[in-house]
Structures are given as structure tokens and as C-alpha cells.
Description:
Number of helices: 3
Shape: globular
Largest sheet: 3 strands, mixed
CATH topology: GMP Synthetase, Chain A, domain 3
Amino acid sequence: MASEAASLSEIQAQLSKIIDPEIGRPITEMNLVDRLDIRDGFVDVEFHLTAAFCPPMFALKIASDIKSSVLSVKGVREVKVTLRGHYLADAVNKQVNKPPPTVTR
């Protein structure tokens, strides 16, 4: 029977596809992922950027790419992404982790 649990190797493979738009190299190759925790389909990713004053649009792009890439892995139900050490980390974290809009009918 196939496991429904999220695979660490699959998550790492997805993260290795995320390219820093300013430098053009994978975030994993540059060791920008500081922590990766997986528990019962919930994934917590902490990362930093190459500079504390990296352009905010790149910071948000990388954070959003992390979230969507990890969410695409089978068995992942929720992802929390945390940017550390950036001058706009709080704003980026709030934006990338906000709940999706609810649909009313």
C-alpha cells in the first residue's frame, strides 16, 4: 500500500527547482533553506535570502514559490513559510501565509 505521508526527498526535490531570480541559482544550492519540518502533512519551511535588503518582489517571489512547490507534493496538506533576516520579513511572511479567500455562494 502506498504511503500518503509527505516525503522529505520529494519536498527537497521541489525546493531544488526554485531559482533565486536575482542570482539564477537554486535556493538549495545556495543553502538558503534553514529548516524544514514535516509533521502529519504540515510542512514548516524557514529560509533566508542572500542579503537582508534583497528586493521585496524577489523575497515574496521566492517565498511564494516555496509555498506552491511544497504544496504540490503528495501528502502535504498545509505549508507555513517563514523568511528570516530580511528587512521586510514580517510583511512577506504575512502575505505568503495568509489564508486563501473563502468562496461564498
